Amino acid sequence: MATLELRNVHKTYGAGLPDTLKDIQLAIKDGEFLILVGPSGCGKSTLMNCIAGLESISGGAILIDDEDVSGMSPKDRDIAMVFQSYALYPTMNVRDNIAFGLKIRKMSQTAIDEEVARVAKLLQIEHLLGRKPGQLSGGQQQRVAMGRALARRPKIYLFDEPLSNLDAKLRVEMRTEIKLMHQRLKTTTVYVTHDQIEAMTLGDKVAVMKDGIIQQFGTPQQIYNDPANLFVASFIGSPPMNFIPVRLMKQDGRVLALLDSGQARCELPLGVAADELEGREIILGVRPEQISLGAAEGNGMPAIRAEVQVTEPTGPDLLVFVTLNQTKVCCRLAPDVACRVGDSLNLQFDPARVLLFDAGSGERLDLAASGTAIKDNVTRFKGR
Amino acid sequence: MTSPVDKPALNLSRIAIHAVLLLAVLLYLVPLVVMLLTSFKTPEDIGSGNLLSWPAAFTGIGWAKAWATVNGYFLNSILITVPAVLISTAIGALNGYVLSMWRFRGSQLFFGLLLFGCFLPFQTVLLPASFTLGKLGLASTTSGLVLVHVVYGLAFTTLFFRNYYVSIPEALVKAARLDGAGFFTIFGRIILPMSTPIIMVCLIWQFTQIWNDFLFGVVFSSGDSQPITVALNNLVNTSTGAKEYNVDMAAAMIAGLPTLLVYVIAGKYFVRGLTAGAVKG
Amino acid sequence: MTTATARLRASPLDALQRWLPKLVLAPSMFIVLVGFYGYILWTFVLSFTTSTFLPTYKWAGLAQYARLFDNDRWWVASKNLLLFGGLFIGITLAIGVFLAVLLDQRIRREGFIRTIYLYPMALSMIVTGTAWKWLLNPGMGLDKLLRDWGWEGFRLDWLIDPDRVVYCLVIAAVWQASGFIMAMFLAGLRGVDQSIIRAAQLDGASLPRIYWTVVLPSLRPVFFSSLMILAHIAIKSFDLVAAMTAGGPGYSSDLPAMFMYSFTFSRGQMGMGSASAILMLGAILAIIVPYLYSELRGKRHD
What we know:
- The complex is a heterotrimer.
- Chain B is mainly α.
- Chain B has twelve helices and no strands.
- In chain B, helix 9 packs across helix 12 and helix 11 packs across helix 12.
- Chain C is mainly α.
């Protein structure tokens, strides 16, 4: 049980080479589940290796329970890790795999036996103890890998994309199981994944990374509802957020975004001061579920008629694709909506929930109401 | 999926293929058969018959005489080969372990430099090596030959293990480090138990290389410290006295038997070593 | 790599652990730097001195190389190498490929046949040389056998014929190495995607044609590594000559490796011997450097 804090962690593989990790700042409380998520090559696995001590950092500090462990070797950090490839020792049976770390730490044989039994029971792998890893299925190997981590009762668990080698069904099962396990054991956990669903479902805190930089750090809800930039907004959510380039119009001191579906136009009022957006190219971000079917006569909310081009029924939802401002836009509608390709739908937007991004920098633009809150999220840990 | 009409022609060509392969088998076997037949003949028998004529009577005198001549050198070869094989394999395993799992700045460069040793024509190092052995007091000793074989075997043994170990996932070492294991513990408890196939390949490769070596033997040894290959060559190429071909052939068989035996028993690893050493070397 | 802000608490044991990989590799690094490159340099230096029976470090410039090029025996050895190398490589490759293709036709007892083809590779060149010296013995070897079998006019005295003795070396060397090349190509053939062959069969190509135009061209890498290994064997060939002919009759079957040995160690011509060794190194470099270069470049394209 421990807190984990990263202070200005920096990593480069040599002078002149681009930084692998840049100024990483984050902190989690005892028992929290931290997700590091991002596309491959974003530095999330490197960061995890640095936390584990398998790679050294070039600058900054890593603190576990407020103690600087940056210079410590992995074995002294009291950390256990579950690897993507499981990394089970192929010549040892399951029992010895789980017991290996305990033996190295010179635990007594009876204590080892007890611990192995406890872990095996917890993970329901008692019947596998005598087998070699090569005789296990992928899911079983995954359990053993977790068992090996659990047996040591470390301060922190690290999971490096533990589910990515499993088939889709098993992945969902194991995801729930990991969550259950964490609720039961309440051990501080860092979990690396490139899967945004795992990130949303498992994490207490999520750090979205790209190019060695944390793009945003916050709760899953913050990440989803208040993404800090275009990258975070596009990475989290499935189907992804729609990004519609818009032209802005000033009218009576208000700013209006123009939408054009080819057969109709609509002016979406934005709650921002006009001069703030002067001369900038703007991208409108709308999640598919925030587009709804408007009543024919209108209810005061801006709406636009658009032609249905493709429909994708997923079961619980009906995804409808239309074109707005020459951009394909996905709308998530109720499955019982009757519509066919070629039909025209009256689509409604909630101006309070659309997001604005600067097309050049990709940064989220502060809407007067919610903007300050986002800034807070991003900078929360810089002050410490 | 051949049509019925094709069948007879196809069978004919298959018979031809088998015939050619079988003929080749016989041709490859001829030298061995000739050596064996000759070694069991008497000199008179050799004079009157031909290569493939059956011995008038099988006699062991050729073998007895050959063994009496070369047994000391046979022992030398064992004294040279066994330690040299074991030491060079052990060092190669450790080198390969470092070069694959514990890379550091410069280790790749070192590997490149070492690889060149697989191609090194030993003629370019013979003189300095003999000066060095002289300085070390190891000239004309079996220990000297052990040293030389270890040094110039390293390139291949390291290559074998390094290429084998790079295919082992690095996560295994990471996991063991987090479990608290150190450099040698990881090697001994995790990596080495996985290495049986490559250890076999390396042992067999080194055994055949060192047992069959002639160049180092003839340059770095003399008289009592000579390995069997040198002794065989001396025996066969002496120009004094009447040639006793039965003794020559028996001695050649004695020199060749250990490696032949290894090949027959562990041919799988022998071939793998040849192709691994060759293709990647 | 140092951690800028970390308060290092590493124990001496940890520090040792960090240095262990380098410590373990250090002896080998020493061996490679001294025993490989240092010694090559040393030989290189010797080739520019007047050394005879003992090394002396009196500068002779290129005199040893000049003497070498004036030496008729060196030229014989070099020409022999070209002849021997060319024939040995060509015939070995041809036989090896041929047998590999035949063996690839789902032959029963393939394992056994393969074992027979490959066993000569387990033998020392000295044993091979001894055996073939006997087989090619004029008057008692194959010479007599074929006459006994009824081929009255048969004569095989190449071993004592200065113009043909190199062919004897070729025969023995081909016997020893062709099985190995067969094994390499067979392994290569097993790696060829069977669907390519199926596709070509559907196109109506005959089996020999498929092998010649589709399968074998895809084995180019195997071909090149075989070529390189065989060239390497040819240049280093010393034991075979020593056992079969000792360079004779006269020095008509000399090879550079043999030349180097006898001038350096028997005739006390250390300087010239070193010069010949350096030229051998040059020949090997001329073969492997382009090979390695193309290998590495090919890998980068992957």
